[in-house]
Amino acid sequence: MSQSGLPESFRLRAGNFSLLVLRLLDPRPEAVLPALGDQFRRAPGFLRFAPIVIGLGDLEVAPEQVDFRALIEGLHGLEIVPIGTIGGTPAMRQAAVAAGLPPLRAAGGKESEADPLAALPTSPGAAPLAEAPPAPPAAIPLAVPSGARATLVVRDPVRSGQRVYAKGGDLIVTATVNAGGEVIADGNIHIYGALRGRAMAGVADDVEASIYALHFDPELVAIAGLYTAREGLGGALLGRAVQVRLDGESMRFDPLGG
Q1: CA 131, 133, 134, 136 torsion: positive or negative?
Q2: pTM summary value
Q3: Where are the domains of the chain?
Q4: 185 with 210: CB under 8 angstroms?
């Protein structure tokens, strides 16, 4: 019961969520949005209706040179949901707030682009989310073993619309990652079932990370920011046991066990 004696209608509590960051390298929406649209055409469904954070730390322009309202409108047109910003100068963040994008900070820490995941808004005024469907379920919590590299083990299938993130270490999935599901890890990803969704390893810029799948049939795979969509995969790889790793600036696909 609330203090007024009426039944409670809501509760507020902090929560941890895995969020992707769109780091702006060009302040012009007319340059950013077509490039994003091109990625969507090559990887249908990638980021569709995903909540996303706008990274401002790479911009070295005056705040008035960034048309935040046009950027927000264009992202909504691509069915991406911008929820706030990280990084940037105080003046840049203030301009973003005026357009409806609050600054975010890492839970339990100061505002930073070093850890954009598990972010919480620090001021009101976020862009309206009413027209977007609910965000995918929060990433499964990661227990960090003392004195060892963290490993998250998931024994249930990763469903369509579900996102699992292994922060600080590797991810092991002993079941299938279904189409529309997404698995993310700072380290390696091991899938002892079928990979039919999206897998992103080395998201903390670990270029040595790999993806292993016993049945390789993904929508998209990515390592340290480099990605390949299904359309770019050779048909001979599909359905096989495959290791994915980086070879310089290219992705390499090797059969496992043969």
Answers
A1: negative
A2: 0.52
A3: 20-121, 150-255
A4: no
* Closest alpha carbon to 242 in 203, 189, 182, 164: 189
- The helix/strand/coil state of 93 is helix
Our CA angle for 55, 61, 65, nearest 5°, is 95
Return the CATH fold of 20-121. Answer: Alpha-Beta Plaits (3.30.70)
CA distances from 152 to 17, 116, 149, 159 (A): 16, 20, 10, 17
Across the strands, what pairs with 185?
166
Band the pLDDT of 18: cuts 50, 70, 90: low
Give the residue among 226, 234, 230 at the shortest CA–CA distance from 251.
226
* Span of 45-49, 164-168, 221-225 with lowest mean pLDDT: 45-49
DSSP H or E run through 31? helix 29-42
CATH class of 150-255: mainly beta
- Residues 51 and 81 sit within 8 Å (Cβ to Cβ): yes
| Pair type for strands 189-195 and 169-173 | parallel
CA of 132: how far to CAs of 4, 49, 120, 157, 248, in Å? 33, 7, 19, 25, 38
The amino acid that residue 67 corresponds to is: D
Tell me the angle at which helices 29-42 and 68-77 cross, rounded to the nearest 10 degrees: 20
Q: Which amino acid is at 98?
A: A
Please report where in the chains the tokens 């975010």 appear, as a residue: 104
